[in-house]
């Protein structure tokens, strides 16, 4: 069964009387070349357990199931259930769960399925990209690799270098936990229906240890949020006006001095290491 064809996808949709739902980000992959890149990037072997978010009509799921030990996919749209039953016919190692991924207790879900280290694959529904990535990273001990089709602009933010226009608190959060690898730029024309944006295939390789060592992760990310919350302000102003940090001007000044960071810099120019130095100084450890 070749699902990577617009004709085939349209005919299955028509037979099941389904219209793709824009509000659920339903843009189905119809390109064998891009599908091949996604499968190669996920590095799946017969021993791999895969979690797929948003299988849709099963274009990716079918191929995953032919390579992996088991594929468990979570799809919010119950209209896709009969389609998936058809497209995944003969693949007993493909499990379909109809649920909202954002509401699933991932640790329990994976624990109930034998635990171990899983690979995540998703052609993401773009309207909930950040909550999905945050949720995956919150359970990162369950995953070795996360291969995602994202909106091109989101990929740029995740890979961004300090001081670039795309660098933000989501960059620091993701890069702290994962190495971000770009796999391929993907044209909007390889999806049906054609979305309004281009895409990029990326891998988030979960780091065994965070990119930088910090003594207090909560404080670290409070500093990061404060620094980016007041873009274009000096670091001193940004840090001393954060209710979350609760540092007055004098305290922020002495922390920055102890960290060896010029307080007139803009928050968005700081590297992950520099944020870590502020965290260490904020704890009074220097
Ligand atoms: N994997 C399919 C493909 O590549 O052709 C479909 C990808 S489509 C971009 C995104 C899929 O995510 C849709 O099937 C959509 O219904 C599903 N989806 C949207 N929100 C979801 C959620 N909260 N939980 C699980 N699936 C969701």
How would you classify the quaternary structure?
single chain
Hetero groups: S-adenosylmethionine
**Percent helix:** 25-40%
Question: How many independent structural domains?
Answer: 2
**Low-confidence spans:** none
Task: Tell me about the largest β-sheet.
Answer: 7 strands, mixed
Strands ordered across the widest β-sheet: 4-3-2-5-6-9-7
Percent range for β-strand residues: 15-25%
Topology:
Layout: H1 6-15, E1 28-29, H2 32-42, E2 49-53, H3 59-67, E3 70-75, H4 80-87, E4 94-98, H5 106-112, E5 118-123, H6 129-138, E6 143-151, H7 152-159, H8 169-177, E7 178-186, E8 191-192, E9 199-206, H9 217-229, H10 235-240, H11 249-259, H12 272-282
Parallel strand pairs: 2-3, 2-5, 3-4, 5-6
Antiparallel strand pairs: 1-8, 6-9, 7-9
Helix pairs in contact: 9-12, 11-12
Bound molecules: S-adenosylmethionine.
S-adenosylmethionine is lined by residues 24-29, 53-56, 59-60, 74-77, 100-102, 123, 125, 128.
How would you portray this structure in words?
The model has no long low-confidence stretch (mean pLDDT 96). The chain is built from 12 helices and 9 strands. Helix 4 links the parallel strand 3 and strand 4. The strands form 2 sheets. A 7-stranded mixed sheet has the order 4-3-2-5-6-9-7, with helices on both faces. Strands 1-8 form a two-stranded antiparallel ribbon. The protein folds into 2 domains: 201 residues, Rossmann fold (3-Layer(aba) Sandwich), CATH 3.40.50; 68 residues, rRNA adenine dimethylase, C-terminal domain (Helicase, Ruva Protein, domain 3), CATH 1.10.8.100. Bound molecules: S-adenosylmethionine. S-adenosylmethionine binds next to strand 1, helix 3 and strand 3.
């Amino acid at each position: 069964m070749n699902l990577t064809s617009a004709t085939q996808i349209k005919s299955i949709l028509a037979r099941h009387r389904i219209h793709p739902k824009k509000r659920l980000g339903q843009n189905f992959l119809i390109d064998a070349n891009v599908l091949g890149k996604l499968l190669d990037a996920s590095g799946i072997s017969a021993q791999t357990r895969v979690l797929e978010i948003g299988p849709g009509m099963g274009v990716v799921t079918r191929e995953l199931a032919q390579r992996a030990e088991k594929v468990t996919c979570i799809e919010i749209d119950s209209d896709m259930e009969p389609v998936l039953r058809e497209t995944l016919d003969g693949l007993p190692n493909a499990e379909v769960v109809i649920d909202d991924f954002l509401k699933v207790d991932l640790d329990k879900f994976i624990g109930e399925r034998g635990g171990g280290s899983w690979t995540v694959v998703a052609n993401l529904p773009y309207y909930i990209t950040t909550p999905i990535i945050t949720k995956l990273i919150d359970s990162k001990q369950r995953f070795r690799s996360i291969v995602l089709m994202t909106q091109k602009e989101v990929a740029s933010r995740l890979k961004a270098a300090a001081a670039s226009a795309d660098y933000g608190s989501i960059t620091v959060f993701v890069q702290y936990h994962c190495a971000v690898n770009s796999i391929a730029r993907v044209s909007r024309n390889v999806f049906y229906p054609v979305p309004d944006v281009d895409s990029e295939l990326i891998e988030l390789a979960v780091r065994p240890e965070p990119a930088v060592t910090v003594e207090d992760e909560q404080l670290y990310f409070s500093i990061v949020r404060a620094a980016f919350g007041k873009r274009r302000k000096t670091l001193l102003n940004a840090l001393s006006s954060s209710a979350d940090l609760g540092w007055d001007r004098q305290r922020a000044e002495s922390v920055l001095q102890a960290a060896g960071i010029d307080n007139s810099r803009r928050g968005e120019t700081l590297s992950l290491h520099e944020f870590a130095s502020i965290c260490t100084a904020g704890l009074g450890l220097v």
